[in-house]
Design goal:
The structure holds 2 protein chains of 2 kinds. By secondary structure, chain A is an all-alpha fold. Chain B has a single domain, classed as Methylamine Dehydrogenase, Chain H (7 Propeller), CATH 2.130.10. Classes of the chains: A mainly alpha, B mainly beta. Chain B: Pfam families: WD40.
């Protein structure tokens, strides 16, 4: 029976469920009912569970206690006799031992406990003095509000109120600022709105304001219907074209066709140059088709409207929105808020109108900015004004033409005749260089551009290529293609020239009036120097050869090592030829490897102490292979004692915890420490010759 | 009990025997009783209690907010249930109220017409009980932790005052001035006490250390030292413990955290713990006439611990006996076995 009782209590309290298992509860109650001894035992078991540092255990234990409390007088006596501790464990009245995690469950436990204490006090308070005292204590000393749903204590409530108050004052301050700002800005906004309005008036002479209601699918049937015509008229006239003055007339004709006499009809038909009056005029109208064409005449107006709109959209509307938000947040519902809202609606109306106007940009050679701006008014903000070069390249260099999807230019036939100083260079110049030069030529600051300018001015020289035989030209071209390209240097500069001056050391004779040195050669021919001017040093470091082989040692996961080191793999040592299984081909290599493996198995590094590893695994919840290390260890320890409870340690797996694990890792800390030590040391080295630094 | 009574009737026993036996039984049966309440006046912790020695009827309490309340402990209503009424109080609005926490209150040992109170506001006040006004005020340089008047002295009228300074000062009520300064301590003095038997013995103590200095005028008192074990005292103030009186072996009640520990005086053996307060207990006082204990705590409560009555002997018909009990005491197990 005793065993059964403790098992029951443990099962019930470690279930981790928010509700108790009714079956087990029934059994427990039956046992408790059987004798007082059992009841006392149950009480002690439950109190032990209540002291567990896990809110779920406590909650379940509390639920069991509450169930028994209402049942048994003896149990009530027991609980009440130790009521302080009970309150501490379920309500966290002692601030030095708050309720354990997880927090949500702790909150739940708290709420449940407060409700229970209140109910108990109501029912049993008179009979159990300590219960009444406890209730009084909670109510008056801890100032627990039993009505409060969150069961917060006074301090928490105060903190909350304080925070609220601070926020309120901040909001009020902001609202005040916004009010002042609005006072300042509303004048500007008004004038801007007036400007936009008058622009619209100029662009659309009729009352545009009434029309926004009209454009809708219902009011605009796709086929022409006569009664709808007068309504359309307003819309149609200014937008489509002004050269349709007689628009209503055919409609009238259509309208009145039944009533008119034949002569009248004939006359009508004739006077309008129509073949018959049976014409049907189909008029297709879409609400979005209200298009205003930007022309020379209205350009100024359109531009000013556009500027004003831009101002509204980028500046006024966001600020007005923020005012409204601030006012509402600060709880100000007076004149200011109303004005802000009015401003907002007006501004929005202006923006909407502009959108409905659907101004078409002027076509043809318009400015680039206009082009960018129009047609995509909505996405205007997405475009950033950029310097012209970015999007627009008047001259595409030849070597880039393919990238742009253009045909390559006509094959360059003419080889540029170089000017005398350039002539030497041109000998080895490849086609590629030339294109680069072309590219450079487009840049007016480059030397090539100057060159081109010069060339243009000079009379075209006699074409060299034309005078030569075609096969000879071909040979020359082939040779040129084969010739190496070297950067320009001193040797090229003096290519093929005999320089009598260079390479000679001139010794200046003494300028002294009386004293004269013994006769010396004024000029010394220095072979080295002159040689230097004609030769070029080319260091030959060999060519880089990428590694072709792989390590191919067997990895623990069964695959072969993919590393391509030249001589030695950092993981598997010297790279030796291996077969498909990753075994070395040479028998001595194989023997060596086996020996090493044996050695590794017998000795564990000291950090792989099995005990320690098990601890680490328990903490990290990851199998690090401790069971593998310890050959005859007692295996992987117990899984988890109570799998249903929330794992408190696991909950630490937040972003912060993960970063913390990295940052506060022992190795990382050690690295930081060494780095900082080094820095310190460097400082000391720097000032080591000063005695006060040298001492410490 | 009956044996004692018959022996008393036959004149076999000393009358004191019965009295001692009965009072010991009562002290051992002290418990929190629902029949006795003390009116809740204090809004903050209760620091000190004192019951006047003349009648044992009136109790003074000093709160940590400077309030002093006078309770009437006697139950004259002839009902088992009684709430000790506050007769009068020195509230915050009183002109002479202590500015800070009242640390000690004491009745004048021979009369209820006067009491003394000392406080952290560095004063010792002598009060006239009937008009509830200060008769005299002593000012000190340091906060006053404790004071005491000799309960047996007839030749002098000295109040020993222990302050935060290392000196014990003796104030003469007759002249209204400090007559002596006794030096010997090096740190603050948390407790002072006159000997209950001899007129001129004063003991002073720092808490924690069992350092007792006897200041003697003529007689050397033999003080038996008993080790009561460790008493937890996390506050920086002295605790006021009390000793029972009139029992065969006396008991000492010591505040111990949020409980009151009961020890025997001579053996130092812990008898029981009285649990009922929700915060640490600061003081307790024993009422010798009815063997009642009153304790004040920082949870603002003054609890009365009353000797347990005899359990009513269950009669033959249990049903009637049960019906007389409080309905809250009944078990509420559901009757059917399936329900559990």
């Amino acid at each position: 029976m005793d065993q059964r009782l403790s098992v029951l209590v443990e099962d019930l309290t470690t279930s981790g469920e928010p509700q108790l298992d009714p079956e087990k509860m029934k059994e427990l109650k039956k046992i408790c009912k059987s004798s007082e001894e059992q009841l006392r035992h149950a009480y002690h078991l439950l109190m032990t569970q209540l002291t567990q540092e896990h809110a779920e255990v406590r909650l379940s234990a509390f639920q069991v206690v509450a169930a028994l409390f209402t049942r048994s007088h003896q149990f009530r006596l027991l609980v009440v006799s130790n009521f302080q501790e009970f309150l501490e464990l379920t309500l966290g009245t002692d601030h030095e031992q708050p309720l354990p995690p997880p927090r949500e469950v702790a909150q739940k436990l708290r709420r449940a406990a407060i409700q229970a204490v209140e109910a108990w006090n109501e029912k049993f308070g008179e009979a159990y003095k300590k219960l009444a005292l406890g209730y009084h204590f909670l109510r008056h000393n801890k100032q627990v509000d039993f009505q409060d749903i969150n069961a917060r204590t006074l301090a928490e409530r105060k903190r909350e109120a304080e925070k609220q108050r601070r926020l309120d004052s901040i909001y009020r301050e902001r609202a005040k600022q916004a009010g002042a700002e609005m006072e300042e800005m509303s004048e500007e906004v008004r004038s801007c709105l007036t400007e936009v309005e008058s622009c619209f008036q100029l662009l659309v002479p009729f009352d545009f304001a009434t029309s926004p209601g009209v454009p809708g699918e219902d009011a605009f049937p796709s086929t022409s219907l006569c009664p709808a015509a007068p309504g359309l008229q307003d819309e149609e006239l200014p937008c489509c074209s002004k050269d349709l003055p007689a628009f209503p007339l055919p409609l009238q004709a259509d309208d009145g066709s039944g009533d008119l006499s034949d002569e009248e009809q004939d006359e009508f038909v004739r006077s309008h140059g129509l073949g018959s009056h049976k014409y049907m005029l189909g008029l297709e109208l879409h609400p979005g088709d209200v298009v205003l064409q930007e022309t020379e005449d209205n350009r100024a107006v359109v531009h000013s409207a556009r500027d004003a709109l831009k101002l509204i959209r980028n500046k006024f509307l966001p600020s007005v929105c923020s005012w409204v938000q601030l006012f509402t947040r600060a709880g100000i519902h007076d004149q200011r808020l109303r004005r802000a809202i009015e401003l907002k609606t007006e501004l929005e109306a202006a923006v909407r109108k502009y959108k409905e106007l659907n101004i078409k940009p002027q076509e043809g050679p318009g400015r680039l900015t206009t082009f960018l701006e129009d047609g995509s008014e909505d996405e205007e903000e997405e475009f950033v004004e950029v310097p012209e070069k970015e999007g627009y390249e008047p001259h595409i260099p030849d070597h880039l033409r393919t990238e742009y999807g253009l045909d390559p230019p006509a094959a360059p036939v003419q080889i540029l005749k170089k000017d005398p100083p350039e002539g030497l260079v041109a000998q080895g110049v490849h086609l590629r260089t030339r294109t680069r030069r072309d590219e450079e030529a487009s840049d007016p600051t480059s030397a090539a551009a100057q060159l081109r300018l010069l060339r243009d001015r000079l009379p075209p020289p006699a074409s060299t290529s034309s005078s030569q035989e075609p096969d000879e030209a071909q040979k020359l071209a082939a040779e040129r293609a084969r010739a190496p390209v070297v950067p320009f240097g001193v040797d090229l500069c003096y290519w093929g020239q005999e320089q009598p001056v260079t390479g000679k050391i001139l010794k200046a004779d003494s300028q002294h009036r009386f004293w004269k040195p013994s006769e010396v050669d004024e000029e010394v021919d220095n072979a080295d120097v002159s040689e230097m001017l004609r030769s070029r040093h080319i260091t030959f470091a060999g060519r880089f050869e990428p590694v072709q082989h792989r390590c191919r040692a067997l990895r623990p996961d069964g695959r072969l090592c993919e590393r391509q080191d030249r001589l030695k793999c950092p993981f598997h040592g010297k790279i030796v030829p291996r077969d498909d299984q990753g075994q070395p081909l040479n028998p001595e290599d194989r023997a060596r490897e086996q020996r090493q493996q044996l050695q590794r198995q017998t000795e564990h590094p000291d950090w792989q102490d099995p005990e320690f590893m098990r601890d680490v695994e328990a903490a990290a919840g990851v199998d690090l292979g401790s069971s593998r290390c310890s050959g005859k260890g007692k295996g992987k320890g117990k899984k988890r004692k109570y799998p249903n409870l929330t794992d408190l340690k696991k909950q630490a797996d937040t972003a912060r915890a993960r970063i913390g694990k990295k940052v506060f890792d022992k190795a990382a800390v050690r690295r930081v420490v060494t780095a900082m030590n080094q820095m310190d040391q460097k400082k000391h080295e720097k000032f080591a010759n000063q005695f006060n630094y040298a001492l410490n | 009990m009956l044996g004692f009574l018959s022996a008393r009737q036959a004149g076999l026993d000393d009358p004191l025997h019965l009295r001692r036996a009965e009072s010991t039984r009562r002290v051992l049966g002290l418990e929190l009783n629902k029949d006795r309440d003390v009116e809740r006046i204090h809004g903050s912790g209760v620091n000190t209690l004192d019951i006047e020695p003349v009648e044992g009827r009136y109790m003074l309490s000093g709160g940590s907010d400077g309030v002093i309340v006078l309770y009437d402990l006697e139950n004259s209503s002839r009902q088992p249930y009684y709430t000790c009424k506050a007769v009068c109080s020195v509230g915050r609005s009183h002109p002479d109220v202590h500015k800070y926490s009242v640390e000690t209150v004491q009745w004048y040992p021979h009369d209820t017409g006067m009491f003394t109170s000392s406080s952290f506001d560095k004063t010792l006040k002598i009060w006239d009980t009937n008009t509830l006004q200060t008769a005299d005020v002593f000012h000190f340089e340091e906060t006053v932790y404790s004071h005491h008047m000799s309960p047996v002295a007839t030749k002098h009228c000295l109040v020993a005052v222990g302050t935060r300074g290392p000196k014990v000062q003796l104030c003469d009520l007759k002249s209204g001035s400090c007559s002596h300064i006794l030096q010997g301590h090096r740190q603050e003095i948390l407790a002072v006490s006159w000997s209950p038997r001899y007129e001129f013995i004063l003991a002073t103590a720092r808490s924690g250390k069992s350092r007792q200095r006897r200041y003697k005028f003529n007689v050397i008192n033999y003080l038996k030292r008993v080790n009561y074990g460790k008493i937890c005292n996390d506050s920086r103030k002295g605790l006021k413990f009390t000793v029972s009186c009139g029992c065969s072996s006396e008991f000492v009640f010591v505040p111990y955290g949020s409980t009151i520990a009961v020890y025997t005086v001579y053996s130092g053996e812990q008898i029981t713990m009285l649990k009922g307060h929700y915060k640490s207990v600061d003081c307790c006082v024993f009422q010798p006439n009815f063997q009642e204990l009153y304790s004040g705590s920082r949870d603002c409560n003054i609890l009365a611990w009353i000797p347990a009555l005899y359990e009513p002997v269950p009669d033959d018909n249990e049903a009637t006996a049960k019906s007389q009990l409080n309905p809250a005491f009944e078990d509420a197990w559901s009757s059917s076995d399936e329900e559990g």
